[in-house]
Structure formats: structure tokens, C-alpha cells
Amino acid sequence: MQSNYKRLGDYIRQVDVRNRDLAVDNLVGLTIEKAFIPSVANTIGTDLSNYKVISNGQFACSLMQVSRDGKMPIAMFKGEKGIMSPAYPMFEVYRKDELLPEFLMMWFSRKEFDREVTFWAVGGVRGSLTWEDFENLNIPVPSIDEQRKIVSEYQAVERRIENNRRLIATLESTAQTIYRQMFVDNIDLENLPQGWRMGTIGEFCSKLASGATPSGGKESYKKYGVALIRSMNVHDLRFVHDELAKIDDAQADKLKNVIVDENDILFNITGVSVARCCKVPYRILPARVNQHVMIIRPKYEYTSEFLLLTLLTNENKAALLGISDGGSTREAITKKDIDKFPILIPHFDILHEFHSKVESLFCYKEQIEQENQLFENVLSLLLTKLSKL
To answer: How many of the other CB atoms lie within 10 Å of CB of 238?
Structure first.
């Protein structure tokens, strides 16, 4: 082992500060993707005075079921204080003149780190990692100046990604605002403008179809090949490249009924992400979809953005989900549900006008998303370089 590798436990110490005075009400959770998110837990009647307080620069992790998940949820907290369940171990770097917390978080972000902790967790109770084994992990500790340089490079790319994300959100919001101004606000469904009418999604589509998972399941996925789009890739207005599966030509040929075209809308029809939808990015083609994703193919290219934003209105999203007064939602949406779903059909001149207004927004958005994908690859390369320190 290289000489600059040190025992992690020699640089960190556990922290356990409780919210005794209830001074902190920012309840957060930790995802398997190593990020903090606002907690959705129901805390009515919960004694939050026993919850742990986490401060800027401190870490929280979960040691449970690491081998099952193949990842260890762990993240460095940024910003104002938060509170978390007492079940989360928390720690901090106490030798910051030798190890930067930001550098350590980079090390935790590596896929190789997850593989290592998964290996050590195999022998644990229910596939969990012990704190002792966690402390005994070896990490590189180059000079503090070298760490600062590495962190600075990494954070510069992160800032570019975050700036792009804000710009993407602005473009999406602008497109939705234009949609509402033209097709929702001040539109009286009982007295529609001349040439407007109520119709169905099916009238706009030349194809509605979902695919299948190749025989062999995940074991049949390849490193290279034709993209197989799954529900995890489809978010509202955004295509997520993480874990995009690939299949070979023979498998793709079996799914030739669901060859994805450039202007197709991808719509999740089952599971927790049901009713999420986005346009397919041209850069991932050729592609197919599995049984959890439906292709919605507009008859006319210029109606793609209109149809997508129609599916994403709060009113239509609620109707598609079948949300009742009791708050229950459906777990699946059928082809018939989509085909017969009622929507407003404006005059085609208006649809052309709308397309001319938002097409450039969507094109620019895709360019920025592609740039962010390249930046994400750069981050991965920077993390890979840590192994060579």
C-alpha cells in the first residue's frame, strides 16, 4: 500500500449533539446517492429533542444494509444546522490541518469506496458495516496543499454543474409559464375560442407503446449497445442518465416495436414514479423502453412540447394519478388511460405559434444538459485519479 494511506479512524471522531432545547427544526434525511434532502417523515407527536444536530462540515452516514444496497449513504452537511434521526452515526474531521473534510467527501463519493465497504459489510449483521470496520478503512492523505488543489478543481466543476442546473430550471419554468399563458389562464372551457375544442391525447398520437425487460434481466445488460430506458431515467421534464442500461443488437431487435424516435415523450406507467414524463434526448438514441415506460409519439413534430407540458400541468397530473380526496394514488396507468385522456385541443395555428416560442428553450435546455453530462464525466475522472495518490 502506498505510504500516504492512513487509517480513517485516526482523523475522525464521532459527534452526538442532541436537540435538547428544540432550537433546530430543519429536519433532514440522507439518500443512498450521498446527499441530504428535506425529510418527508411524519413527526407529529415525535419528540425531536432526542434528534441529533448536524452542523456545517460534519458527516452523517448509515451503516445498515450496505452489502444489500451496494452503496453506503454518507454525506458532508453544508449550511445551517439540521436535525436527523438518532439512528444516523455522525462524525467530523478533527485534524483539519492534515485532512480536509471536502477531500474526504470526494473519497467517499468514489464507486471504489462503495465496493470496498460492501466487501467489509458482507460479514456483518444483515449486511451492515460496523463502526470499527469503517474506522479501519485506509484513505490517502496527501499534503494539505495538494488536497486544496484537488478540491478546488473538483468544486470548480461542481459550480459549473450547479449554475447549469439553475439555468435549466429557469428555461423549464419559462416554457411552463408560456404554456399557461396561452392554454390555461383566462381560458373558459365552456366558451372556447373559435377552432378550439376538447379531445383526447390519442388524437395527437401515432403510437402509444411500452416494452419489456430482456430475458436474463439486469444480468443481460451490456457496457455498450442500444440504450434501454427504464423508469429511473424518466423524471418530469428531465432525462436522468445515471444507470442507463444498454442491450445488444439481438436484444434490441426483440424490442423493435418500441424503437424510440427523436420527438417521443417518455411516460412512466408504473411504480413510485408513475406519471413522470420527459422528451427523449436525441443524444441517447438509438434506444428502446422497458415495460415500465410508455412511448407517446405525437403525430406532428410541432406538437411534442405542447403534449409534454399538457401532461405536466397540476390538474392533468392529478387526474392521471387518480388522486382522490383521501390522497390515494394509482400505481399504474394503462395505454387506454392515456389514449382516452381528455385534453384541450387548440387551433393548429396556435399550436404552431406555441412551438415557435418554446422550441428554442427546449433545444438550449438539451444543450446545457449535455454539457452537464460531460461535466459529470469530468467529476468521475477526478475521483478516479484519487486512487493513484
So the answer is: 18
